[in-house]
What does this fold into?
Amino acid sequence: MRKIVLMMSMSLDGFIEGPNREIDWHLVDDELHHHFNDVLKEMGAFLNGRVTYQLMADFWPTADADPHRSGPVVEYARIWRNMPKIVFSRTLRHADWHTTIVSDVVVEDILALKAQDGGDLALGGAALAAEFLRHDLVDEFRVYVHPILVGRGQRLFAESDELTALRLVDSRRFGNGVVLLHYVRPHVIDR
It folds into this structure.
């Protein structure tokens, strides 16, 4: 069975973006970008909310057309364009680049998607992650902690009354100071 993997960057104080949606503090150098590409090219699909999808769609479809782009950026543009994408949105009416639009997170549909053959499913976006967590659908967490305190903005994890047990399976420090914390839910280990 495929896993749903929440894969997000955040500040040390838990934000994925600043108060004006800024993410220019994300420290994505070639080393980290190579790592992202290695992980993401093995995925079976990207699961995103509308905002995340539109941010990606504004840049990645043609990012490799610029001859000044680094090798990892060119590689990711191709990964992103060719990867199946499922966008959860009630307002988006059209999307290109192998994208399916779904209006709601329906647990039975997500479980059926997980049961299909193929690579794991990369989940992105704080609001969508909160909905998946509310339905106990996230199996794995790859959180990239950037060495910065943002102070305020959009938090990665919404407040919850639920306690979610995790087991650390890996950590990695990148040369730019970003630290990957890789956790799985205990039920994933027990399979």
Q: What stands out?
A: The first strand starts at residue 4 and ends at 11.
